[in-house]
């Protein structure tokens, strides 16, 4: 907890002035202090549950804790990363196209099938990891962290994301909402906690399957079809539209419709949504034409689609694990501030070469949420500086668990919250079932 008695008068004055500005922006609201016992996250989780708005650092204080050059963007440096990833993608593609057969050499041989599956699965995993590097750079473009030029950002981002079947401008909007309302129970975007009274079907499924099978089912759905489902339906997104009106439970919010409740009703995003759709259609048409020209459509499918599924897995894993943990609070209207929400982000250790190929998006996510237009190639240095500043205050979240363990335990433990109001912590359906059984006994 921050030591209030150690602040100087001038520092208090600066904080007061900054908080006054944030109040005018609608960020600063009174917080209800609650206590929670926790485990797992090292650093800020418990403090973020109990902290009052007056104890939060300001944006300017956080920015001053980071070396100034970390905010400088270089178009040349960013384009070099696109080329770097492109070289890896091209090499992997060349090796697979040249040396991997479309079908096993001997379809009657188990050994031949085993070699074929091993080779293609190695390609799919590796190529998916490499393509995720392009996904991250396109994501940087949407945040304007790629270049000082908006045009460069949008051209590069549109091309890369369209190639990966991501609707660039449409998702740019929903992702912007995710950053502007991180951990907000009503207005946040992606992986917003389900409410207990709206999740009876999940509770029933958990009771029918049990802890392990339910966790496995969660992982299967989230990491395979979770991304396209979100794009088409907006599920796990905000409970209110951009105008602040409550949405009916189950109301679809497609990324592909200009009239979707996902977007503002003033029509300003309509052309960008249509442009995003055009990019996807062009990619699918290009893949189809390549399949025709090559004379081997199955080979084209094997080269692209399974690797694309790995990209989806990685991007969902990042947006899920960097914000969901039993000790990290979810915040209602009266508790949420922009700083508090952004600090409810978690850094995690991703192994080499994954962290390198993905431009450190998972190991530097706290810095990314605080300063999303900071270029990725400065994020490691910025994270070290932020950690040095935030950790003594108990405001830096780091989960040291391995990613497989973290995903499994998160699927086990984080199922719902009690209410849309106040400070809420993730809860487990298994605990509910056990308590109800105990009451019945």
List the defining traits of the structure above.
single chain, 441 residues, mainly alpha, two-stranded antiparallel ribbon, two-stranded antiparallel sheet, globular
Report Rg. Answer: 23 Å
Domain count: 1
Q: Helix count? A: 18
Q: Which series of helices and strands comes N to C?
A: HEHHHHHHHHHHHEHHHHEHEH
| Mean pLDDT metric | 89
Largest sheet: 2 strands, antiparallel
Helix content: 55-70%
Structural class of the helix and strand makeup?
mainly alpha
Give the overall shape, derived from the CA principal axes.
Answer: globular
Poorly predicted ranges? 1-39, 433-441
Q: Provide the spatial order of strands within the biggest beta sheet.
A: 1-3
Distance between the termini: 42 Å
The fraction of residues in strands falls at under 5%
Total strands: 4
Topology record:
Blueprint lengths: L8 H16 L17 E2 L1 H6 L8 H6 L10 H25 L10 H33 L7 H14 L4 H13 L19 H10 L1 H14 L1 H8 L36 H25 L2 H25 L8 E2 L6 H5 L11 H4 L7 H6 L8 H12 L6 E2 L4 H11 L9 E2 L4 H12 L1
Antiparallel strand pairs: 1-3, 2-4
Helix pairs in contact: 4-5, 5-6, 5-12, 6-11, 8-9, 9-17, 11-12
Explain what this protein looks like in three dimensions.
This protein is mainly alpha-helical. The chain has one domain (68-440). The chain has 18 helices and 4 strands. The protein has a two-stranded antiparallel ribbon with strand order 1-3. Helix 8 packs across helix 9 and helix 9 (211-224) packs across helix 17. The protein is globular. Mean pLDDT is 89; it is low at 1-39 and 433-441.
């Amino acid at each position: 907890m921050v030591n209030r008695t150690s602040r100087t008068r001038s520092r208090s004055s600066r904080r007061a002035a900054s908080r006054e500005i944030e109040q005018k922006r609608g960020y600063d609201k009174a917080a209800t202090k609650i206590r929670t016992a926790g485990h797992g996250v090292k650093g800020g989780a418990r403090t973020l549950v109990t902290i009052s708005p007056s104890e939060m650092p300001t944006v300017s204080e956080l920015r001053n804790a980071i070396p100034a050059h970390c905010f400088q963007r270089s178009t040349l440096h960013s384009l070099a990363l696109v080329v770097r990833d492109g070289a890896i993608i091209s090499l992997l593609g060349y090796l697979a196209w040249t040396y991997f057969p479309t079908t096993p050499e001997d379809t009657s041989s188990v050994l031949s099938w085993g070699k074929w599956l091993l080779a293609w699965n190695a390609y799919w995993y590796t190529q998916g990891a490499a393509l995720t590097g392009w996904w991250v750079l396109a994501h940087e473009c949407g945040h304007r962290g790629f270049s000082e030029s908006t045009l460069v950002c949008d051209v590069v981002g549109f091309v890369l994301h369209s190639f990966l079947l991501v609707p660039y401008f449409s998702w740019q909007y929903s992702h912007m909402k995710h950053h502007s309302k991180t951990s907000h129970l009503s207005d946040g975007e992606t992986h917003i906690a389900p409410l207990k009274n709206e999740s009876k079907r999940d509770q029933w499924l958990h009771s029918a399957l049990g802890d392990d099978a339910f966790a496995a089912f969660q992982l299967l759905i989230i990491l395979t079809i979770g991304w396209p489902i979100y794009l088409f339906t907006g599920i796990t997104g905000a409970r209110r539209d951009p105008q602040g009106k409550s949405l009916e439970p189950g109301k679809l919010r497609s990324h592909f419709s200009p009239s979707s409740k996902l977007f503002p009703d003033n029509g300003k995003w309509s052309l960008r949504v249509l442009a995003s759709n055009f990019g996807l259609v062009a990619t699918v048409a290009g893949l189809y034409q390549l399949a025709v020209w090559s004379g081997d459509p199955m080979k084209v499918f094997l080269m692209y689609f399974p690797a694309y599924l790995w990209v989806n897995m990685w991007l969902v894993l990042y947006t899920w694990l960097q914000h969901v943990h039993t000790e990290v609070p979810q915040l209602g209207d009266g508790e949420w501030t922009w700083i508090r929400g952004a600090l409810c982000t978690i850094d995690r250790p991703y192994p080499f070469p994954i962290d390198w190929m993905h431009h450190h998006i998972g190991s530097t996510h706290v810095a990314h949420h605080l300063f999303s237009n900071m270029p990725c190639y400065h994020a490691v240095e910025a994270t070290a500086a932020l950690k040095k500043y935030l950790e003594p205050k108990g405001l830096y979240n780091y989960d040291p668990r391995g990613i497989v363990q973290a995903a499994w335990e998160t699927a086990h433990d984080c199922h719902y919250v009690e209410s849309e109001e106040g400070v809420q912590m993730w809860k487990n359906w298994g605990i509910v079932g056990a308590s109800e059984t105990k009451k019945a006994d």
